Amino acid sequence: MEAASASSSLHHAGEAAHHHGPPEAHRSSRVDPQMLGMLLFIISEIMVFGAFFTAYFFIRVVDGNPWPAEGTELPKLIAGVNTAILLSSSITLHWALEAVKRGNRGAFKAGMATTFLLGATFLFVQINEYVNIGFAPYDSAQASVFYGLTGLHGAHVALGLMILLMVTVRAFRGHFSAEEHRGVEIPGIYWHFVDVMWVVVYSTVYLL
């Protein structure tokens, strides 16, 4: 009994000597906190888009109003080209991420710069579309929903461009590496979300 008690005391003493500081905080999820934060943010943004799509379907399905409003026309071809531009930016961003994972800094910087320029081109074309489209948000319910959905997405593109610009500047300053590239991966998830949402908006608003 004495030998067992002594052995147990030595075991606990060894554990106490091995562990220093406060116990590690328990996590409710194995997902990385940064990744989890971005995913929760994206879920909240999907809900915001859902509210605008509800108004869109109410006008078209419930009220049976023509889309777009009579006497107006949407530039489907220009929007289609702009869609290709935005989707291309997802490809270049993925290329940049894979490049930094391989330690190829030249390709990483080129990919980030190209992604930013493609995103900026998309936003410029969308603003130019607003200038020349021929109707204002207050002209009809259809116009209000059109500007609401595309403008909401444009705001997300603008936010994404600011994030991409910061990542690009850091890339040219020598930040990120094959071992540490989370600062590229997390913004990339947001940008891919923006691209996917535009495909939904374009397909619903311009093509259906």
UniProtKB/TrEMBL annotation:
Residues 12-29 have a biased composition (Basic and acidic residues). GO terms for biological process: aerobic electron transport chain. One of its GO terms (molecular function) is cytochrome-c oxidase activity. The keyword Disulfide bond does not apply. It is an enzyme of class 7 (translocase). Keywords: Cell membrane, Membrane, Oxidoreductase, Transmembrane, Transmembrane helix. Its EC number is 7.1.1.9. It comes from the Bacteria. The chain crosses the membrane at residues 36-59, 79-97, 106-125, 145-167, 188-207. GO terms for cellular component: plasma membrane. The keyword Ion transport does not apply. It is a multi-pass membrane protein. It catalyses: 4 Fe(II)-[cytochrome c] + O2 + 8 H(+)(in) = 4 Fe(III)-[cytochrome c] + 2 H2O + 4 H(+)(out). It is found in: Cell membrane. Residues 1-208 form the Heme-copper oxidase subunit III family profile domain. Residues 1-29 are annotated as: Disordered. Residues 1-11 have a biased composition (Low complexity). Belongs to the cytochrome c oxidase subunit 3 family. PANTHER family: CYTOCHROME BO(3) UBIQUINOL OXIDASE SUBUNIT 3, CYTOCHROME C OXIDASE SUBUNIT III. This is cytochrome-c oxidase. It comes from Conexibacter woesei (strain DSM 14684 / CCUG 47730 / CIP 108061 / JCM 11494 / NBRC 100937 / ID131577).
